Amino acid sequence: MSLPLEAVRRLLPLLPRSTESALSLHQAIRSRKGEAPVTDAVRRVATVAERSVEGFRVVTLTPKRPSGAHLIYTHGGCYTFPLRGLHWGLLARIVAAARVSVDVPLYGLAPEHTATDAYRLLDAVYDAATAEHPRVFLGGDSAGGGLALGQAQRYRDTGRPLPRGLVLIAPWLDVTLPPAQIAEVAALDPLLAPDGLREAGRLWAGDLDVRDPLVSPLHGDLGGLPPTLVVQGDHDLLHPDAVELARRMHAAGSPVELRVTRGGFHVFPAVGALPESRLAVRRIAAALRG
């Protein structure tokens, strides 16, 4: 663990946690703002275009020298909070390192929208991307990582072409967060708390069961999936599910690489100044080039 990572990790408990309880989550939802605007860091490495798909904004980033690979990236925020500046910073570094074009679907958030709404949008974005690009990847962080895995399972089952690969950054894979599985790591996580997250998962499920693979893809069939890179920290409430995902994918015969960073907090690659973050982006870029 680097000194910068340790320093950031010690400061994080000073931040308020919107997921501390169901009440704090709803309070945070009531005061949330819109998506962060595209940053200058993104505009330095890519041209930016927007379109509307199924009534939602989709932002497309195209690098100056594209490699031919295309990434559909779904952002995190426990399905209730919009894309933030840190997401744009992470995407800028991925675009620069991999020369990959990126679609960023700004899907509707809970409680106004649910998983069912999101997949309607994501299906349309994916169908357009596979018609245009020879190599399409799916990726995302936290809740967005769960959506990326859920999409891959859905496209396998509906006969669509499979994505070339998956890049999952601290993915949220089971919104039920079974207490026995997370008890030990919950005391280590400075950012996430289970009670508020479970409430967010309940809101996101809508009429679906919270264990439905569209909501909790860890409960779905993990066979027949494309190569998957999982980037995870071990001081993250979602670490146990990442380990379980790798175990189940391996058992099902799906190629998977799990990279765990000691002392890594939730979605640590978004903090670009950390040596561990730079290494994670290099690994992500290698996966997107491969």
Question: Would you give an account of this structure?
Answer:
It comes from Frondihabitans australicus. This is Acetyl esterase/lipase. Keywords: Hydrolase. It contains ten helices and eight strands. The protein is of the alpha/beta class and 290 residues long. Helix 2 (22-30) packs across helix 8 and helix 4 packs across helix 10. It is 41% helix and 18% strand. The longest helix has 18 residues, at 115-132. 47% of the residues are buried. The chain has helices at residues 3-11, 22-30, 40-45, 85-98, 115-132, 143-157, 179-186, 194-205, 239-252, 275-289, and strands spanning 46-53, 56-63, 69-74, 101-105, 135-141, 165-169, 228-233, 256-261. The chain has a single domain (3-289), classed as Rossmann fold, CATH 3.40.50.1820. An eight-stranded mixed sheet has the order 1-2-4-3-5-6-7-8, sandwiched between helices. Strand 7 (228-233), helix 9 and strand 8 (256-261) form a beta-alpha-beta unit.
